[in-house]
Specification:
With 133 residues, the protein is of the alpha/beta class. It contains four helices and five strands; from the N terminus they run αβαβαβαββ. Strand 4 and strand 5 form a beta hairpin.
Length: 133
């Protein structure tokens, strides 16, 4: 997952020398969707610092949003599954609204599992039939 995150960040920072303005549609060049860690307050959580670095360091226009999900440890599988559903929904909405925008999925702790399951097509706490512990 760390290599994937580094690759995604590298793609965001690999741009031309001049800033790229967002198109007239209001879509940014890059859109970051984040999932916070277990037990963190709603929002981006600790991973928000990395997102802020991307936003301020990129020469492209970058928008951001955090998914809304429980991020609890009490019923981890249900929480993570709701996170997967929320991220898939936001990903689909963003891709539909702005088809030329590059999308970055990020997460930390439980949020990283959410992002990984979305990328690997895992569903509600399972990945290819194998439950996560």
């Amino acid at each position: 997952m760390k290599a994937l995150l580094i690759t995604l960040i590298a793609l965001v920072f690999s741009t031309a020398a001049t800033p790229v303005a967002g198109p007239a549609t209001g879509c940014s060049a890059v859109h970051v969707i984040t999932a916070r860690a277990s037990t963190e307050a709603p929002g981006e959580g600790i991973i928000g610092a990395v997102v802020s670095s991307i936003v301020t360091g990129s020469r492209q226009t970058v928008s951001r949003e955090a998914i809304i999900y429980p991020a609890t440890l009490t019923n981890y599988l249900v929480s993570e599954g709701l996170g997967v559903t929320a991220m898939r929904t936001q990903l689909a909405a963003q891709a539909s609204a702005c088809p030329n925008t590059k999308i970055v999925l990020m997460g930390y702790s439980q949020g990283a599992q959410v992002a990984g399951d979305v990328l690997a097509a895992g569903a509600t706490g399972t990945n290819k039939g194998t439950e996560h512990a």
